[in-house]
């Protein structure tokens, strides 16, 4: 019996020893893995061309280039206007108009007929940061535009890219090869946005807040261009005194937006061939405006604090006017020698 008790005691001590060893060993703690979280993808902003608001994933890093284009019966049909992002129409001597066509998202091979600079071109081109292409100009005007920081690419100065067409008589036959002209630009950056754009045409300010319109009739002292809404093309189509304004290919010129700015026109210090003062549009200050998009028009106010700043368009409530994505024609209509009639 004594031996049996000794064996039980030994087994009990061994069991206690094993229990003690087990209790002193570190225990492994298993932490459950957190459930995977789903992160919603962030929508990337689609890049747009700054002068049209049109999406352009392949938008090239190039400057805008403005070209001074004639607008007389001898110059029509002009070449390249249909591919301009923005076209400005300004009154010059004799009460006729000329265009300052700005190209960026599209570059036609040829543009023209090209004519001379005017003092108000500084306020149009300086905010873009790119060059102005001209045939030449009076030294007074050349100097004032250059003082505003605008690079001039001029036929009279011997720059490359110009040629005379045998199809027309001088001075209505000077044209430019736009890609070659652009290679001479000192600027390399694309232009900043000049106007505000809606995400799509249905959200343009004129569409949301304006009144329906079928046509706009404009008047300058010696010309009366017009714009008629084409719902099928979803564009405003241009005419010259009732005759369709066309490209060389025969297509009617059009735009998604027409901006009419009522402006002061004063006598500059320059003189034309008859000795009369060359008119100068005052490009700074503020005034009445009319914005047409999507077959509707809305009144607005334009303002421009300095030559180098873009024009700002605001509603009566003080909000920025959003244009429809696309091309824009800006009509600089004199307050005292011109007018605009909206046809419903």
Automatic annotation (TrEMBL):
<dbReference type="InterPro" id="IPR035328">
    <property type="entry name" value="DUF3048_C"/>
</dbReference>
<dbReference type="Pfam" id="PF17479">
    <property type="entry name" value="DUF3048_C"/>
</dbReference>
<feature type="domain" description="DUF3048">
    <location>
        <begin position="219"/>
        <end position="330"/>
    </location>
</feature>
<dbReference type="InterPro" id="IPR023158">
    <property type="entry name" value="YerB-like_sf"/>
</dbReference>
<dbReference type="Pfam" id="PF11258">
    <property type="entry name" value="DUF3048"/>
</dbReference>
<feature type="signal peptide">
    <location>
        <begin position="1"/>
        <end position="24"/>
    </location>
</feature>
<feature type="domain" description="DUF3048">
    <location>
        <begin position="51"/>
        <end position="188"/>
    </location>
</feature>
<dbReference type="InterPro" id="IPR021416">
    <property type="entry name" value="DUF3048_N"/>
</dbReference>
<keyword id="KW-0732">Signal</keyword>
<feature type="compositionally biased region" description="Low complexity">
    <location>
        <begin position="29"/>
        <end position="48"/>
    </location>
</feature>
<feature type="region of interest" description="Disordered">
    <location>
        <begin position="23"/>
        <end position="48"/>
    </location>
</feature>
<protein>
    <recommendedName>
        <fullName>DUF3048 domain-containing protein</fullName>
    </recommendedName>
</protein>
